Amino acid sequence: MVWGFLGEDVDEPWGDHTGDPGDDRWFVPDGTGFDEISAMLRENGLRVEDILAEHALAEVAPPGPRFEGEPASLAWICFHVLQEYARHVGHLDVAVELAGGPTGE
Asked: pTM score, two decimals?
């Protein structure tokens, strides 16, 4: 939303690479706790809520590095994000179970 729709600079737009020697884009450094991760998630969620409240779904992103060719509308970006969540929701189930949380059916 921030990089693709607003066109703001983002240091690592394709992942949170932190210099792990294994070049793992989604590496979480040792010592990063649940509180820090959940606060970041909440902060990002609030930012997205603000973006959605301040912009019409038909509004188109500015030209930039996120989209080759024609920039996307906010509605298209929202649908893309929904698809990504749907693809990865099973991963979240595994993470919750590994953390000792409730399991599904």
From this structure: 0.70
